[in-house]
Amino acid sequence: MKTFRIIISVLFSLLVLAIISNLLISTLGLFFNIDVLFTGNYFNQSPSLNIKLIFVFKAIALLAFVFGVFVLISKINIVVKRDFFNDKLISCFETSGKLFLGAGILGIITSITEIVNRVLLNDLSHQVYLNIDSKGLYIMLMILGLFFILFSKVLDKGRKIQTENDLTI
After folding, report:
1. What is the pLDDT of residues 93-137, one digit of tens each?
2. Which end of the chain is more exposed for a tag (fewer CB within 10 A), N or C?
3. What is the DSSP string of 43-63?
4. Using CA atoms, how far apart are residues 28 and 59, in angstroms rounded to an integer?
């Protein structure tokens, strides 16, 4: 189990590093007008307010996702001990589920807004800095969030049944 925890920690660290570096590159490009990706857009115009707002909401969605993963990983010791009906674990699954669901909803809304911004407003400048997501990822996050919320309710019901059984014996 120790190697399992080490692998999870390494993967989580890589996830955080990838997301933070992506957010840093996009922040430098959109808010400080540094042409990090060498797109050549900064000779013509600065990013529009729409692009900046879409980026901020996508960044919030990504950070909520990372925090949800952190909440899950932080309670891995409870799972290793096989204490599945622990209140902290149940609360952890519910919190992670809500974070994943919120991140998915916010992400899909901003992705739709990005498409509208691109098609209707014809705002194509600096779109390269918004390519930090996948629409499918947000749908998967919503499904995963609903699953964790449902799973926490099932574990809570199981905990109540276990408590009742312990009292009747």
Report:
1. 999 999 999 999 998 998 888 888 777 877 666 666 666 567 778
2. C
3. GT-PPPHHHHHHHHHHHHHHH
4. 13
Residue 38, SS3 per DSSP: coil
H helices of 35-134, where?
49-74, 76-80, 87-119
Are the beta carbons of 58 and 107 closer than 8 angstroms? yes
pLDDT of residue 143: 94
Domain ranges, residue 79: 2-168
Within the chain, which residues score under 50 in pLDDT? none
- Report d(CA 71, CA 123) in Å as an integer: 37
The structural domain count of the chain equals 1
Q: Quick one: tokens of 78?
A: 């409870």
The per-residue pLDDT for 98 is 97
Torsion, Cα of 20, 25, 28, 30 (10° steps): -100
